[in-house]
Amino acid sequence: MHVGYMRKIVALWLMLALLIGTSSLENATANPSALYTNAKGSALIDVESGRLIYSSNGDTSMRIASLTKIMTAIVAIDNGKLTDMVKTSKRAVGKEGSSIYLQLGEEMSLLHMLYGLMLRSGNDAATAIAEHVGGSEEGFVHLMNEKAAFLGLTHTQFKNPHGLDEDGHYSSANDLAKLTAYALKNDVFAEIVSTRVKKVPNPHEKWEYSYTNKNKMLSMYEGADGVKTGYTKKSLRCLVSSATRDGQQLAAVTINDGDDWSDHRKMLDWGFKHYPLQEIAVKGQQIAGYPYTIGQSFKYPIADNETDGVQSRLVLHNVDSIRSTFGERGLLEWYMGDRLIGSVPVYDLASPKLEQSSKSPKALQSLAEFQKADHQGGSDIMMSSIVKVLDALFMH
To answer: Which Pfam families does this UniProt record tie to the protein (predicted)?
Structure first.
C-alpha cells in the first residue's frame, strides 16, 4: 500500500491483547445483577471516563432543589477569583430556606462562601456568589445555562443559583451525573465537597464560623468524598454522592428518594463490584509493531461480559496536518463493539510531548489561588494549619 495513502488515513484494527495483553481485564466480576432504588430518577457514573453505568428514568427533567448548587459552585470557580471578597447584599440576606446567616454588608472570600454554599447549602451564599461573579443573579444564571449547554445537558434549565422551587428550573439524573463528573475533575471543587468541617474567619466575633457538612455519606460510606444534599417540599429528597475506591471514583444521583442514604450505598457498591475501572493503555507504552508510543493513559469501567468486545484502531494523521506539525502522529481509538469509548494521542518514541504535565496552567493557577484564599482573613497561617490537623484527628 502506498505510504502517502497510509499517512492520510490508516484504519488498522488491533486486537486488545496485541497492545496490552489480557491481564488488565481479568479482574471484572460476573455479569451485572439488577439494581433497584426508591428514586423517581437515578444515575451512576464513572467520573474519570464519564461512562453512565446505570440509569433509571435518567432523562426525565425534575425539580432538583439544592443539587443546583453543584452548578453554582463550578461556574463560580471557573469564572470567579477565589481570593475576591464577596459582599452580602440585601437580596442575599433575605433569601429564604437554608442559610449560613450572612449579615447585610458582610464580606467573605469567594472560597469561604463556596464552603458555606456546599457544606451548609446556604441560599444566602448562593445569591451573594451569583451577584458577585455574574454581576447580578440573572447574569449568573445565564452563565449556568451556558455551562449546561457546553456540557451537553439537554434536560436541564436553571432559573436561580440556589434551587428553591421555581417553574422552569429543572434537571435530570443523567445530566446531574455528567455535571458532577465534570465538576469533580476540578481540584478546588473536589476539595470543598469532600470537607467534613470547615473553619472560616468571622468578622463579627473572635470565634470562627464552623461549617459542618450536611452530607452524611462522608461518614457513612468508606471512601466517600462528596457531593451535595437537597430538599424542598416539591422536589423532596435529592442527593448526589461520590466515593473513591482502588483508584476509581463513582458518583451516584437520586431525585425524589425517601431512602437515599441506603440507596446510594447500594448503588456505589454495585458499581464498584460490577464495573471496575480497567487500565486500557499506559502513557509511554509502545504500540506493538509501530514506532509510536501512547501519549496519555486511558482507563475505562468494563464489566466482565464486555471484555471481548473491546478493540482499538490506530488512525494516523496526514503528515502535513497541524497536529502532525506539533508532534502528534495520530490517535489510538478504543471501541466497545461499534461505539467509540475514548481515544489517546500517539507520538514518536521518546517524544518530548511525553514529559508534559497533565495539569493545565489554569488548573495550577487555580490551586495556587485556592491556597492563598484559604488563608485569607485568618489570624495566622500556622494557626490555620493546626485547625486543619485537629479537624482531621476528630473526624477519624
So the answer is: Peptidase_S11 (PF00768)
